[in-house]
Amino acid sequence: MSIEVEVDERQRVSLRKVLGKNVSRLRAEQLPDGSVLLTPLVASLSQRELDALTDPKVSAGIRAGVEDSKAGRVTRYPAGHFTALAMADAMEELSENEAAAIDEVIDEARRENGGSLTDEEEQRLRQVCLHLRDAYPRS
Q1: What's the CA dihedral at 95, 99, 100, 102 to 10 degrees?
Q2: pLDDT higher than 70, residue 109
Q3: Which of 21, 43, 81, 89 has its CA 20 to 30 A from that of 98?
């Protein structure tokens, strides 16, 4: 099947007429003659995922985790537990100046909020600060 498609103002094309609704991921390859070949993918992995799955130690850990889960050997953690762990790791990696700047933002938010913030509010504010730091690095 071959149809003509138009590029919109954001340089996008719709391929639904050609692909149907069952294809959600494609590999795009530009050929030497300039044409573009689109190949539907059933599943794809990032290099990191592929590396993890091909590492025997990681694969064994995943299989052991699945078996533990099937046998009911699981630990339930409260909502936000792993986010808090990741946040603690990220905060440890900050320079003293970065940590002090984030603390200033938290203190200012407390003052504006009548002197207190919930743990969730403080955690979310720290996440936003870290995101902004990563999104707009100083040169």
Answers
A1: 140
A2: yes
A3: 81
